[in-house]
Specification:
Strand 3 and strand 4 form a beta hairpin. The protein is of the alpha+beta class. The chain has a single domain, classed as Translation Initiation Factor IF3. The chain has a four-stranded mixed beta sheet. The mean pLDDT is 85. It is elongated. The chain is 35% helix and 37% strand. Pfam families: YbjQ_1.
Length: 105
């Protein structure tokens, strides 16, 4: 399945628009990861654990969105938007949401 942020797929005209599809994943921040991320922030550098969690959450949200598109009979999702939100008390959770339009090319 083609997933793209563009509104069209070059060389593949849209035959049918099937509707908006979404995927959302909420992940909790682990206390130990928070402590190590704070240390990384103090001494500089990247927080590899947070990057891994974000990547996993993004992949899961996209997979969920693709599943919705397949259920509608689509073979592509166009106009995809990816958003990140901090949720929960003291920002203890992170939500990754994706949305796009399911189409049949």
């Amino acid at each position: 399945m083609i997933v793209t942020t563009t509104t069209a797929v070059e060389g593949h005209p849209v035959k049918e628009y099937l509707g908006v599809v979404t995927g959302e994943v909420i992940v909790g921040a682990n206390l130990f990861r928070d402590i190590f991320a704070s240390i990384t922030d103090l001494v500089g550098g990247r927080s590899g654990k947070y990057e891994q969690v974000l990547a996993r959450a993004r992949k899961e949200a996209i997979a969920e969105m693709k599943g919705e598109a397949e259920d509608l009979g689509g073979n592509a999702v166009v106009g995809v938007d990816i958003d990140y939100e901090v949720l929960g008390q003291n920002g203890s959770m992170l939500m990754v949401s994706v949305s796009g339009t399911a189409v049949r090319l």
